[in-house]
Amino acid sequence: MMKISQRSLGMQASPIRKLVPYANQAKKRGIKVYHLNIGQPDIETPKVFMEAVKKADLDVLAYADSNGWEPLRDSIAAYYKRMGLTYETEDIIITNGGSEALQWAFIITCDPGEEILVPEPFYTNYRGFAAPYLANIRPITTYPENGFALPGRSEIESLITEKTKGIMLSNPGNPAGVVYSQEEVRLLADIARDRDIFIIADEVYREFCYDGKSATSFGTMTDILDRVILVDSVSKRFSACGARIGSLTSKNRDVMTAALKLGQARLCVPTLEMIGSKALYDLDPSYFKPIRERYEERRNLLIEELQKMEGVLCEKPGGAFYAIAKLPVDNAETFAIWLLTDFEKDGKTVMLAPVENFYQTPGMGVDEVRVAYVLNTEDLAEAMRILDISLKQYPGRIN
């Protein structure tokens, strides 16, 4: 009997997307579903993207270079320089979204059976990116009680073995919205230098920090740039998720040589999307201020409403556009499905992302959900009203 590979059998279904069929069925029944489950911003994509695409005068839509359209790489290098980072065009390769860059990071740093340390809870697709290449994720456990801050150096170093090839983290973080301090970034930089491992820095939410905070880029750690792999994307930064344009950046020539080989193996990134994305990176930095203010207003509304709900625990996140809420329920995934199959209020319900699979450690996050504040304030307020009612009616509520 023919069988598919164990690698493919062992891959997880996306815990973020696997509830979509339930949501689709709810919509077919006429239920309005408020999507708080996925980081799809409703912020308008800047019009310069489509304007640039429409202005493109191409007689033939040909293959692009495997390392990406050079004018886009130039614009990303200029964007980095505006932030005080020293990356040049030659240090940047364009990828099919940040997702491809993260997959490549696993391929480049790990042979089968080797490990990357990742603070948990983490973006669940990290596991999906690692699995096909037989790389393993080893968790650095963090806790909501102290804002998901990193543990001390000794605890982190106790997790390092001969199989450890690097540390991967998102800053600001998904799913917890944590913004790591400059001291925490420096701590990891010191560990990477002293233990001769890589840092894979997922910084796609860089601009979205609140309460006057800012994210410290690993690109500012100039003494370890040979071991930093920086991942970026237009998806969240410019609300252009469908463009699927990301980048992998490094000062390490061996890393970039390997990345180009991977780029050549998949030929290239779509030309029109690169043309549009160059226009995004050429935007004045003032573009981000009103966007950040909109997200901060949404965050404040969300946290205020969640903290009013009896039995709900939720710390205020410092960045990105996610929060983790601990709910008074027996199981968050069961509750999330119940919301879509057995509950509605005034013809409406809410879709959440259960957090258990954002952890690597078994048993953690069973009663937690990630809430994405990507809706306008009116819809977000209504979604919170409905969530509050649902928690009071849920048969598996724990008092």
**Annotated CATH architecture of the largest domain:** 3-Layer(aba) Sandwich
- Classified in CATH, the superfamily of the largest domain is Type I PLP-dependent aspartate aminotransferase-like (Major domain)
Radius of gyration: 21 Å
CATH topology annotation of the largest domain:
Aspartate Aminotransferase, domain 2
How does the helix and strand content classify structurally?
A: alpha/beta
Portion in beta strands: 15-25%
What are the low-pLDDT stretches, counting only 5+ consecutive residues below 50?
none
Total beta strand runs:
12
- Side-by-side strand order of the widest sheet: 2-8-7-6-5-3-4
Order of helices and strands: HHEHHEHEHEHEHEEEHHHEHEEEH
The CATH class designation of the largest domain is Alpha Beta
Coarse shape: globular
Largest sheet geometry: 7 strands, mixed
Note down, in words, how this protein is organized.
With 399 residues, this protein is of the alpha/beta class. The protein folds into two domains: 146 residues, Aspartate Aminotransferase, domain 1, CATH 3.90.1150; 235 residues, 3-Layer(aba) Sandwich (Aspartate Aminotransferase, domain 2), CATH 3.40.640.10. The chain contains 13 helices and twelve strands. The strands form three sheets. A seven-stranded mixed beta sheet has the order 2-8-7-6-5-3-4, sandwiched between helices. β5, α8 and β6 form a beta-alpha-beta unit. It is globular, with a radius of gyration of 21 Å. It starts with 5 loop residues before the first helix and ends in a 6-residue tail after the last helix. The mean pLDDT is 96.
